[in-house]
Specification:
This protein has about 400 residues and is an alpha+beta fold. It has helices at about 5-15, 195-220, 295-315, 320-325, 350-360, and strands spanning about 35, 50-60, 65-75, 75-85, 90-95, 100-105, 115-125, 130-135, 150-155, 165-175, 180-190, 235-245, 250-260, 270-275, 280-285, 340, 385-390. It is about 20% helix and about 35% strand. The two termini are about 20 Å apart.
Length: about 400
């Protein structure tokens, strides 16, 4: 893998996971968060505008499964969208003016206009991704055209070349007798001619179906278990995902998993990351980023322990817990290279250090140049870059330890 991929990883990690202790992003002025005109693509002079393809996920009203693909050429827009439950693509075309005001007309397969989007095209100043929000309505000439329904779509960091789409599939189940509901989503690649797309699809699909099967197995009534009271709160499993990066040679997906078992005091939550090398057709592991035989876990643990101890007073961490939770001798898998932290409050962001070393083709000769680890009393699903061991509360069923990969 060439060096540009790790550099992209570092940028992603810096933007969504890692930050310097001295200047948290939250202190940035609100005015810098988004701009309706930033990065808009206007043609200049007599040059032909570049066509930019953008992928969005979002909602219209209560429908939360909207997916949209737009090609922007100058101020012109063309593309389609569909509802995940239905699957039928609806063509759209329109424009964006210099102030970011967007108009999109939608058409059925016969060319008849069936709807109208009006909203604002804004670009986030931190990650450069686009959000479009506004109202959808029927055409003004139709009855009910004055009624508006709010919509909002957010750009995914997808940059495939050619006719390649990353679409969302879902699993929905409901069992009234056992009182549980399952709602799971997973990504699938379509189009293109890369045979490794199907290998990724199998891994992405298999990860979710395995989780669903495990949940259903846990829901099977035990021999001496009392019947569940009617009308009581049931159990549920919810799986969604975020796209951290998707390009021709690499895709990184983070699953966000939440579950609740009837009678438990608290719900469970966790994450799993799939980093897949589309060029070579294999799932990446942390150990793939290091030279064979290198003691990378020790290097990462030592760096993180040192940095977390500097933050211990501010974050209320205890040195003994830091040593135990972030130690390279804590539970770990020698085959995959994933470390399991015993302290959920610690964020092992050695991944960034890994990519730094890989980019420079060297070991951690100067740890002071590595990215800064930031501890959080309550690890968020966005900032976790290593696996946390989640201990079930009394009365809760066991929650399996999840793996997190090299990029969130």
């Amino acid at each position: 893998m060439n060096i540009r991929v790790p550099l992209i990883f570092i940028c992603l990690l810096v933007s969504i996971g890692c930050r310097k202790t001295a200047t948290p992003p939250a202190s940035a002025p609100p005015a810098a968060q988004a701009s309706p005109v930033a990065q808009l693509d206007h043609s200049q002079g007599g040059q032909t505008p570049v066509a930019l393809t953008k992928h969005f996920k979002g909602s219209i009203g209560s429908s939360l499964d909207l997916q949209m693909k737009l090609v922007r050429t100058g101020d012109q827009l063309a593309g389609s969208y569909f509802y995940q439950k239905v699957g039928t693509r609806i063509d759209v075309r329109g424009n964006v003016d210099k102030d970011g005001n967007l108009t999109l007309e939608e058409f059925d397969q016969g060319g008849k206009q069936t709807g109208l989007f009006k909203g604002l095209w804004t670009v986030d100043a931190t990650d450069g991704l686009v959000t479009v929000a506004g109202n959808w309505s029927k055409p003004p000439t139709e009855k009910g055209g004055d009624k508006k329904t709010a919509f909002s779509v957010h750009e995914q960091p997808i940059s495939f070349t050619g006719d390649v789409d990353l679409v969302s599939k879902q699993i929905k189940e409901s069992n009234k007798k056992l009182m549980y509901e399952i709602s799971a989503q997973y990504p699938q690649l379509s189009g293109g001619n890369n045979p490794n797309f199907e290998k990724f699809n199998q891994v992405a699909r298999g990860s979710v179906t395995k989780e669903v099967a495990g949940f259903k197995k846990n829901m099977a009534p035990e021999t001496e278990e009392e019947p569940r009271p009617e009308g009581s709160m049931g159990s549920d499993l919810t799986i969604s995902y975020d796209v951290a990066l998707a390009q021709d040679d690499l895709i990184s997906i983070q699953y966000l998993v939440g579950s609740y078992y009837q009678g438990a005091a608290h719900p469970n939550s966790g994450s799993e990351v799939i980093n897949f090398d589309l060029k070579n057709g294999k799932q990446l592991k942390l150990s793939d980023l290091f030279k064979p035989g290198s003691k990378y876990l020790s290097a990462l643990a030592n760096y993180c322990i040192g940095d977390l101890k500097k933050q211990s007073k501010e974050k209320g961490l205890i040195d003994d817990d830091i040593n135990e939770g972030a130690s390279a001798t804590a539970q770990k898998s020698s085959t995959t290279g994933y470390a399991v932290l015993g302290l959920g409050a610690l964020l092992l962001i050695g991944i960034a250090a890994t990519l730094f070393m890989l980019a420079n083709n060297s070991g951690p000769s100067n740890p002071s140049e590595l990215p800064v680890a930031v501890a959080s009393p309550t690890p968020s699903r966005r900032t976790m870059s290593a696996t946390a061991q989640i201990v079930p509360q009394p009365g809760e069923r066991d929650f399996r330890v999840r793996r997190a990969g090299a990029c969130l």
